[in-house]
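Researcher: Structure prediction, please.
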Amino acid sequence: MLAHRSPLCQLLRRTRRGAVSPSALAMLLSLFVLAGLVALLMRSSPSQAPSTPSGQTPNEPLVIYCAASNKSVLEAIRSDYERDCKTPVQVQYGPSQTLLASLEVSGAGDLYLPADDSYLAMARERKLLAGESSVFPLAKMQAVVAVAKGNPKQITRLDDLSAENVRLAQASVEASAIGKMTHATLTASGQWEKLHARTTVYKTTVNEVANDVKVGAVDAGIVFDAVLHDYETLEAVALPELKDVQARIAVGVLKSSRQPRQALHFARYLAARDKGLLRYREFGFQPEEGDAWTEQPEITLYSGSMLRPAIEATITDFEQREGVRVTRVYNGCGILVAQMKAGQVPDAYFACDMEFMNQVRGLFPESENVSQNELVILVKKGNPLGIKSLHDLSKPDLRVGIGHEKQCAMGWLTQKTLTEGGVKEDVMKNVVVQTPTGDMLVNQMRSGSLDAAVAYLSNAAGSAQFLDAIRIKGIPCSVATQPFGVAKDSTNKQLAERLRQAIRADASKERFTSEGFQWVGEKSHVNKTR
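Model: Predicted structure follows.
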């Protein structure tokens, strides 16, 4: 019934009665069509606001739990981020320990920014963080004594805080980062009990300590230096006894986040040297180096070809989770090293063996061992030629394939293994092909153009129905160790470091072992190549 009362329906009835001319009707109909098209275009046109990471709901607030010591700087960064990225950020401030407890109870939130990264370690132990690569270093803070301008009580050493005429405030040992750290440091030096006995009041947060000094409720308070940025009437006194009380600030993405891509986006913004870290420096912190800000950062990884099956899925997951791009260059390590020596330096390098990392150790001053891979003799299924050792590769008329000595770690290691086994001269007479990758040897074995090949165990992982692997016994050098290094001059060190952490995570470990590698990625197996 309502449809018959619309202006268009009334117009049609009037037209049938002759009250409106056909030309007027045509013009009015055109206006209705035009209005409909305009409305459709307005509904379908893209927003002019900056895009949000794919899969996220625009303008859904991010929730961050933040230590009170970072309140001023985070408020400035929040304003910047909301302006630049059009995503609202909600913040809950409080003591680091109290926030951690709240996170554990509520099971909600997107990010956690405590006053010291030791709380992030606890959050990781309690399975609250999103993953191995979910922590972003931000800055440092130093414990100092806050006093009124001019230091009227002339405090210069820790014993001055125990004087009869000095009223001292500290932050809670149980709830705050500075309280916990001060307690641990001074307990170790045997100075805690005396200071505790002379403490006038304990406050919940470091900011409350500074406020008490500001209003004259106490004469001194132990705070972080960056907190005093907001207190023009106070000054900091650095005490030698507190020099080891230094907080390392980092932000972690929470497993509970319902919008992890946006949370990671904000974490990268916080940790960018030309965004969040500029604010940290402005507010008196000691910022980390940080990466440059870009909406979709990109890093380049050079990797030995034999590692591709073990890392490709991990890298793809990393790209999708972080909203970044990793350009992979897989090749023989000899070829990759030659490119690096010619000036083509990637952000990260995953070498097939330590020897090839050592050749560019000036570019990658530290590397971590991740896995091991052993050389084996590949033969046709059932081993019809009865090959059992390296010596058997010297049998007459045998067609043998090996890696190229100068193009890949596998070839270099094969030569070393043949030499140590005392069979190099005899076996090399039967070598009909030398390739830059083990996969090429596997393909030639499967095609029947080779009778045997020396390659990595991982190369044959997908060809068990066609090939058998004969272990090389008694020659330790036949095992290769794979280190991962981040370039010292990379402009995206943090992103490359998070990729390294992703490759060393438990899910990655399963992929390595399923591909025939041995896992040595624990912290106790770190190799420093200097």
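Model: The radius of gyration is 33 Å.
Researcher: Thanks, that helps.
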